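Batch manifest, entry 17 of 40.
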Amino acid sequence: MNQKGFINIILVVIIVALVGAGAYFVSTRQTISPTPMPSSSPTPTPTPTPTQPSTTDTGLKPSTPVPPQANKSAWKTYRNNKYLFQLSYPYGWKVKEEYPEIDKQSKEAETVLSLEILSVDKQRVFALLYHVNENRWYTSIDKAKLSGEKTFYVSGFETVIERDFMPLAVKVMVKREKEGSDDGLEFLFISSTSTPSFLLNEDDIKFFKEILSTFKFIK
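Output type: structure tokens
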């Protein structure tokens, strides 16, 4: 075989090899699917689920705690067996009781009992004075009526709240008996400080009446 024939054989082999390789490459591209790339979009932040308020066994929402002065079921009772009366006052308030010495022969007005009930924050004082030979009862009521105050009843006795000393104090006077002796009680609600933020207001007067509504004479 001459040199030219040998070269031709080599060229044919190379061409066949190239054609075979190209066919293999094309078939491989058609059968192998490209692997998808992961998405670069940000993962959405989950929206938090609102926390539901706790409930009692009955399924009702727990009630807001009631201030002691408003929750009358928690009030305590003061009872005076000497002068035969009682009243209720808020839980936690402190009671101070005194019996001043008096001249038993005197026909002048005398205070035989001084009762103070001090609020928890020490900003309010409910005071009760038991008087004998006192003659201010009807004058006090008439004077308050003239100033336009509305009457109400304490243990069955018509009375009014006097505001002469507002905003430092208010008072009510109640006669012990409609007829007979001039014994009776003077109730006061007092601000124990002159600081403006602690002076008496209309809410204090309503609260004062709440205490008065619990007062009664006993046998």
